[in-house]
Amino acid sequence: MDVDKIRQWLQFAQQIQGSGDFWNSIFDKDFVNSNGQQQQQQQHYQMNNQTPHPFTMEQPTAPKDPFPLVDILADEQFLYIIAALPGVAKEDLNLAVTNDTVILKGIIKPLIPNTHTITAERKYGPFERAIKLTESIDASKIKAKYMNGLLIVSFERIIRNAEPIDIE
Questions:
Q1: Model confidence over 122-146: pLDDT tens digits?
Q2: pTM, whole model, 2 decimals?
Q3: Which is it for the CA torsion 108, 111, 115, 117, positive or negative?
Q4: 127: how many CB neighbours lie within 10 A of its CB?
């Protein structure tokens, strides 16, 4: 396929789509350039013993997932947050509530200290997660329980009855 035709197609698609972010994420800019540029990138990765992503020529990176993973549940009376915290000691957790946000902080310490890591898929070190609540709660009636690596926080919901408003 001709490079000029691809550029024309990208320009046309950007006019219709509005911004080029979508198309730039699909097409690697260096792929559209000359083959000499690609070969330079391949040499860079070979010299540094890295394996580039086959389509973008970029070094793959781990996804940035939020930690800890949480579920938010609700029934008629309570709102619940369940946070998965495997390997975290209760003493290493801090929980705070400000207005409509729950802040969960802590540290994940290695289970076996003074060892050499061969492979690490679990997260270690400090973490913090702010969880925005979608409704009003009674901050004086918060309960938290930690068991089997799960932090279960329950909040009493504030149920407000609809108040009629006079229309003039």
A1: 888 999 999 998 887 877 889 999 9
A2: 0.56
A3: negative
A4: 18
